[in-house]
């Protein structure tokens, strides 16, 4: 049994913390939202009224927060309160520079740290089947792994500080670009009188195959479980795809990488969100291409 402080109990953090409770760990939770904290309490998480209350006696602190600025603010407060040797795990999706800064802050006071963003969405968080992409020292990874295994089914140590975030945004940049490519191909096929099924049967077994077509096909029919069959309810919301694409572009700028298609994908998703589609599944972007004359 490990004593865990879990900070940020929203759509992802709530079910992740609940799985730690189910596995027999003592979890105290803190969230700025009273309603979120109340919901977490129903899953056996002990609610804390203030951050420091959650940290008392904690051996491990997990954060699951919206953005880099939130993580840096919370980690600054956490590192003021916890003893040397405490392990801090951040599973939020944040920019690589903030992740590296957070690691450096932890190292300054002798704490262990891991960036460990996830993929698998809220369904994976509830089922305990997330994929964790971790960055940090071998010692931090070894200490965190048993807890990550409670919340996920695939745990990959990607390298040193920030490597987990780097892997996450590179993967999601591929996903954003490939989804746009698949959507364009289906719209072109429609104009050429090709049925969705025929294009799927060919492309999903030929050199066009990829996750965006084989598993998450953006038109209804060929893959019955894809969000296209459910009025594009997410799934993975377009606003989150846009967030990750923007993070990839920040990282490309600060590292000097050339990512022209990543930049184009970010612009297309920004337009899609501006048109009121941020809450829809990211594969619904196919409709924007149909409407473009
Ligand atoms: P969410 O908005 O549902 O939850 C974030 C929670 O953090 C909120 O409850 C908020 O009140 C709390 N919070 C914000 N600032 C705080 C602070 N200073 N102290 C305490 N609590 C604070 O978001 P989410 O969907 O759970 O996503 C969390 C992170 O996971 C994000 O970085 C997101 O990009 C990433 N992510 C989300 C998904 C998904 O499908 N939702 C998938 C993979 C990764």
UniProtKB/TrEMBL annotation:
This is 3-hydroxyisobutyrate dehydrogenase. GO terms for molecular function: 3-hydroxyisobutyrate dehydrogenase activity; NAD binding; NADP binding. It is an enzyme of class 1 (oxidoreductase). PROSITE patterns: 3_HYDROXYISOBUT_DH. It holds the Pfam family NAD_binding_11. Residues 162-288 form the 3-hydroxyisobutyrate dehydrogenase-like NAD-binding domain. It catalyses: 3-hydroxy-2-methylpropanoate + NAD(+) = 2-methyl-3-oxopropanoate + NADH + H(+). Residues 3-159 form the 6-phosphogluconate dehydrogenase NADP-binding domain. Belongs to the HIBADH-related family. It comes from Rhizobium tropici. NCBIfam families: HIBADH. Its EC number is 1.1.1.31.
